[in-house]
Amino acid sequence: MVGGRSESGSRRPARAASVVVPFPNGGRDFRLDVARFVPSGRSLLVTVAVIACAAAAYVLARSTSMFAVERVEVKGAPPALQRRVVAITSDVVGHSLVSLDTSRVVGRVRALPTVAGVSVDRAFPHTLVVRVAPERPVALAQRGDRAWLVTGGGKVVGRVEPTTEQGLPRLWLPKSVFVEVGGRLPPSFVPATRTLAAVRDVGFRRAVKGVHFERGELTMALRNGLEIRLGPARDLALKVAVAGRVLRFVGEGTTFVDVSIPERPVAG
Predict the structure, then answer these.
(1) Which residues pair with 141 in a beta bridge?
(2) Which of 38, 120, 127, 160 is the most buried (most CB within 10 A)?
(3) Strand-by-strand arrangement of the 139-143 sheet
């Protein structure tokens, strides 16, 4: 064998090199500096002092007049409802904004029949802000010489004189129907109130006199004498919108528009 080759001329494989990597053995040459990860005594004292000051300030704010309520500001409500909200929340004046139970305030305002939604915010240093979403009546429900405002969901939000609110459609109630402010009309009247809510929501531009619901069929009467036949109480917004478009093209002699099948409206 000459030059690392065998007689057959092949080369022998080289031996793999071995490397030894020394690791610290915990002796003097390897020390973990734990002290630098531990906060100093001065830092601990400062942290404790900050926490104590924050706690003292919170207790002070709860128990003193530092953030006492000086006024209640009502937003989103008409003047009459604003006055009612201010009246039922007047007892919070003088109490701390910090410790005020806002859920209790929300519950009291939400209990008003004319309120659909409410939220309460603290406006430091001295103001409580109450945001109100008022109920929107869509009809005047009348029974004899008594009348009530009702919403699209059939909620009774207030009693009024029958001669008022002339612009609202009428729902005539039989004498046997019990009506209470804050309550709701019987379920049989809800399709009619839902129809009138759709009239409001789609921007129907004709004056509506009232709505009748008999034998599962809805009919809306306009003040000019024309009838809108809506059929079953479903797809009401679509049917009312279609009726509004059809009315642009009907002649003076038209007495009804049937949109019970909104894809195929009929006028006659």
Answers:
(1) 148, 171
(2) 120
(3) 156-160, 146-150, 139-143, 170-172, 208-214, 217-222, 227-231, 256-258, 266-267
